[in-house]
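Re: the multi-chain job from yesterday

Posting the exact lines I submitted so nobody has to dig through the queue logs.
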Amino acid sequence: MSANTLEAAAEESHGLVAHQFDDAEQQHEAATLGMWAFLVTEVLFFGGLMLGYAVFRSKFPDAFSAGSHELDVGLGAFNTVILIISSLTMAMAVHSGQVGNKKGVALFLVLTLLFGGIFLGVKGVEYADKFEHHLIPGLLFDYHGEAGAGVNPKNVELFFFLYFAMTGVHALHMIIGAGIVLVWLLPRALQGAYGSEYSSPIEMFGLYWHFVDIVWIFLYPLLYLVGRHQ
Amino acid sequence: MWDQLRESLPLFPDAASTIAGEVDTLYFFLVATSLFFSGLIFVLIFYFMLKYRRRSEDEIPAEIEGSTVLEIAWSIVPFVIVMIMFGWGSWLYVKNGRSPANAMDMHVVGKQWMWKLQHPEGKREINELHVPIGRPVRLIMTSEDVIHSFFVPAFRIKQDVLPGRYTTVWFEATKLGEYHLFCAEYCGTEHSLMIGKVHVMTQADYERWLMSGEGESTTSAGERLFSELRCDTCHRPDGVGRGPVLDRVFGSQRLMRNGERVIADESYLRESILTPQQRVLTGYRPVMPTFQGQVNEEQVLELISYIKTLGGDSAGRAR
Amino acid sequence: MSAATPVLPSEQTAPSYLTASFGIRSWLLTVDHKRVGLLYLATISVFFTIAGIFAGLIRLELLTPAGDMFQADTYNKLFTMHGMIMAFFFLIPSIPAVFGNFLLPLMIGARDVAFPKLNLLSWYVFSVGGLFSIISLVTGGVDTGWTFYTPYSSTYSNSSVITAGLGIFITGFSSILTGMNFMVTIHKMRAPGLTWFRLPLFVWAHYATSIIQVLATPVIAITIVLLALERILGAGIFDPRLGGDPVLFQHLFWFYSHPVVYIMVLPSMGVVSEIIACGARKRIFGYKIIAFSSLAIAVLGFLVWGHHMFVSGQSEYAGIVFSFLTMFIAVPSAIKVFNWMGTLYKGSIVYSTPMLYALGFIGLFTLGGLTGLFLATLAVDVHVHDTYFVVAHFHYVMVGGALFGYLGAIHFWWPKITGRLYPEAWGRLSAAIIFIGFNLTFFPQFVLGYLGMPRRYHAYPEEFQVLNVMSTAGATILAIGYMMPVIYLIWSMRYGKRASSNPWGATGLEWETASPPPTENFEGTPVVTRGAYAYAEEGAVVR
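And the result, structure tokens for all chains:
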């Protein structure tokens, strides 16, 4: 049967192997390779931001320490723990799928969503705090910190530009991930679509979610822990 | 008639500087190599098209799998040729990048959409540059806004002109005449009109030209600014001021508070005036105010000209 | 051209992909890679036309030394949008999105690509990105040059920079999705017996291209994000007033934009290999070497971006390193050219339209590539950087190179795609006109460049006029040449002779199925027992 429209293809994929593949194994290998290729693109995407950070941190070390000092280490640490827990619940979701625990898949997806939501909520609190203290670049930025005379406020503005760019892009990836769970994976999981025969989408999303977590593991020390020794 | 043809259909630019001939020689080598190889390919294509054209429908040529010898040969030969190009080009580039010690410093400020030039003796020009023949001239350049590029085809020189930074280029003119000056980095609406002329004159004519019209020299303008802006209250030559003594500072190596060692070139001096908190000299407190907004780029260059003269000795002595 | 026995309609057991379903929904919701390829063909043709018209207007303005046809701002927008649309919305998709999509599954004996729905999505993403660039056109245009250098683009330009940037950002995802799809397809879905070294070189070329698409595109994406943020917030890492660095933008921009030119030319080289092997009826000389050269070009392409920045204020040492590495890339490219010549040697050559384009590619790419060496040579680049020499160089490799490959592909696979033959005489005539028009347009620009005429100028000194007039004359001929295939190709869709499954007598799995192919591509999965281009082997060519 030729499936040459989206509708026909949709019908067929409720059968487990899509028409272009010979068998489920080929399909699974293809999906895995595809997701890893996509994650490589994400590494390059965040890599550009990391490069910018590296260049300006080496140029303005004091300003970066000063800017980092304005960030709340405690909240950042809390968020790091939250995100790691969400990666754990995501791994549990994948595992549930693989052993056929369909209820577990749904449950752990919900938990992942929950912890992701807490992370984003905390980030919202942090962003609001920066807004109150006039630390958003371009929006009446005004640095009045303790570092004082040795630091050019304009360079601190540069730190915050990178802070918002990096954490903002990261948060966007989390929101998109949450959206995918909410709109696509969770409804299907609740219908019992993911079990030991077919849990590829959960696995692929798991890879994505772990990647987003790893990016944060880099961002946290680079952004929050720079000013510690001052 | 030939002159008319040459004027309306020029095929090659004037060579009016010490480096132009060298660049042209390398260029001709590249042209010859390119003509040889592209000619070879074109001729071979036509030759093969004729000699090996299909003569009958069932014709099947013999298989030739490949030839390792040929592959090696036509990898090594091009590689050697491009390495020659690289070596020659880099050597010329590095050699031509070093400005002679006795070069006359001139200041260039590019802005949308004009070139502002200032001679050390003070004379200012817009979109025109008068220089004497046979003397090396070094241009210290910056932009007030976007990236521009200072391009004089006849001299074979080009250098991007950046905001917030100095870049330099030097030349020594070898032919009298008038030559195009172009902006070669797209900079907005009137980019095509950010052009001018370089006038190469005899030394005598140049001096006569300098005399005409007024202008305090950049150095005395800098001295005036140094006093007007009260720089002298902190940077006192007797060493009791809150700022470091500036005698013989230009070209010396400085130790910063954070251990960094910096050569005090034009960029360093500019940074010290506009963003003094960036680097603070060891043993001093970060109390110098910024002069950003109080001085424009040309005034910064004038201050630097003056500072270069402090201490009486020639610049460039390492401490 | 051989007149093989046509596959009669009654012999076909499955309807062709063109007639399997009708109506606009069946096209807009298709997951058939062949239809997706045609969707791309339609869209990129529109963009080529728009950008081509801009080129025509530019050449008209440059007939006279004064900037008397357009206002400066308008002219600046014309060359910006010509470059932007040609690069991002024509050249980058061209061969991969049209021919890669159509042919890769056929060439490897698969029913479709690995992710057909993502394939369709990539076309929608591409179209949305293209829509944003049209919006930026309509809301006043962009005037930053396709290179968007800061701080002009981040702070000073009053044009629709963010809209245009958004368009490019979105389209980038189309490129990434296509690259991912091809990589997985080639890795996982080859027919039994089709080992890597039996693959057609077209497939190798697309594999190398996919690597670049996946690795490089994200970098331009983040660069655009940073540029847009800086423009919106009025603060950022490229602004010298904050201590930022405008040259950093150039590094980030060129880290993508240099590899991107290899995205443009590698597929074209793959096409040339296919056409030359068929046109000379001979195995490609040095098959493995060409395959590895494609990979080498893909990898080396990432190491040379700084050769666009020799006079940018980057250090002398950086310049030397980048010049050195750039010289390396010349070698695999030269190797390919020599290997193609080796294929022609003692071959049995026809002068078909695709062959004319392929041979044209070899000559023009050689010239274009050699002039790249001028730009890689530091001392010479100082003089010719940002002049018409650069403009001439990149048009030689992008038009004489990439576009000639594209046109060759259109003619070579036209019978397969449409089931019709185009009129060969008109094909050859157009190829000749395009070749002549192209050279007349761009060769004088090398001379103009060394004379010192800067690029992106709408007014120039009088002594440059004769060469500019020559160039515009060439552009007129070129425009005529471009319009001819549009006419006769469309004509052939209705009135052209019907094509057999293998009108060219070529090797390759795509020629072993009907023209046009059925939706599922093959009746059953083919099994491959020989290498590519086995022209001399008994039974290799299935007519």
